Please model this.
Amino acid sequence: MATEMELPERDQMEYDVVIVGGGPAGLSAAIRLKQIAAEAGTEISVVVVEKGSEVGAHILSGAVIDPIGLDRLVPDWREDPDCPVKTPVTADHFLFLGPAGGIRLPNILMPKLLNNHGNYIISLGNLCRWLAAKAEALGVEIYPGFAAQEVLHNEAGAVIGIATGDMGISRSGEMKEGFARGMALLGKYTLFGEGVRGHLSKRLIAKFGLDKSADHAKFGIGLKELWQVKPERHRKGLVQHSFGWPLDSRTGGGSFLYHFDDNLVAVGFVVHLNYENPTLSPFDEFQQFKTHPMVRETFEGGKRLSYGARAITEGGYQSVPRLTFPGGALIGCSAGFVNVPRIKGSHNAMLSGMLAAEHMAKAIAGGRAHDEVASYEESWRASLIGRDLWKVRNVKPLWSRFGTWLGIPLGAIDMWTNEVLGFSFFGTRKHGKADSASLKPIAEVTPKTYPKPDGVISFDKLSSVFLSGTNHEEDQPVHLQLKDPSVPIAKNLPIYGEPARLYCPAGVYEVVYANEQTRADPRFVINAQNCVHCKTCDIKDPAQNINWVAPEGGGGPTYPNM
Model:
């Protein structure tokens, strides 16, 4: 295998600020830095690296957006004919589903915080493409198709930039024809907006102990499809959320249906990753949900256009790590700014990017570099982000502790007292334990079984992955790394039935037997080319044995309109 000593030196490029991730947080930071420089009559050089083949290729969200971040970043966005934010919410429905039917909950009973009027149904990927054009017009350099693979440090340990991954390395570790060495992008400050469970952000959190005063990080997995439905089934501007069936009362999660544009419906399903039954499959729960009589009718006669999946941060206020360290900061979902009951994080991602930009710009103006800009960390709790997350801080832990039937009403009461009275009867509750520690042994649960997909409303994993546009160069190092290759078969299989084959929404992991009838000689197989970069395996594996690292830049899904 080629070693670092055998590789050629990296070329270097220097900037004031390096931003990892072309999502709403990273692009908002880039735009705000350029705005500040223009206002001051100075120059701040900014580069954004994005591992997707294009900006937006890896962006997956519901999405209903609270425009508060967009209003602050681009105040005249409503007058821009190219802005893809076009569909205001016109109706807000909340459903409780049982196995055969369900009820619509009166809106008057729902906390005001969950009201979606004034918000917009969007494709977050298309919004990011639009923001990227705005950033480039201001002079931001954006490099899609380049995965940030390594954090670079100086002798004092401060972050001084990142290195993009080498291209053209074979699975055996040899340099192939067409090999290209990664670039070193150096900056006075580096912002990490990789999204949920970013592989570099994870390393930084561990290296600098950023989570030592935070509660456990908590996550969910969100699965989404985009459908074109029959015109008579479409209600432009309708937002519909549900909870209940097919999940049991001890498993948190729910659904969304968003009607937007021309006969498009975004349908998604979220399963909280603290579920206990190792035979649960989030993908199959989603497919089963669509067959419910109150849901199925929307999709009958329609066409499924796209599919994807992505982990979601759910820890909220208690779980946000320290955001700053020498030479850089975390922004967006790398920091964990999702408001779980609102199912929204894009507005806080944008606000955090802007907030970080303002503090970094001030530091640069003062002649600083590679130090810790602690003022960003000290300011977020008093900002719109902190106030947004503070009011809903107990919803997730109450749901986890008391289950759906009691936890949701208690969470609603808590949101109401926080919003109206300014306090909580529950104080600030803790989350308990990490999601990787929540599974029960398979011998202690009732195994779940799922109906065979009908190919009309419900589908299998492989046909779904095909719709995601996922593609990886097959002859490259496997980016799903096992710390101990023996664990899946020696430990996870006998204790949990090897849950990776079920929690993965893309069919990446399999247990293959030499003899299927006798279950002899099991072997753990990783189909890395199927990976949609959701990061669920990195989060949920009970042995914490799977380490997700970035594959070659440009690999992974290519989401259109998602």
